[in-house]
Amino acid sequence: MAPLSGGTTNRSWQLTTDSGRYWLRLGCEAPERLGINRHQELMAHHAAAQIGLAPAIRFAKPQHGILLLDWLSEPDWSRAPGDIMRLIPRLVQLHQLQPPWSRFDFGAHAQHYLKQLSPLSGELKKFACYFTRSALNLAFPAALCHQ
Question: What domains appear along the chain, each with residue ranges and CATH number?
Answer without folding.
Answer: 1-72 (3.30.200.20)
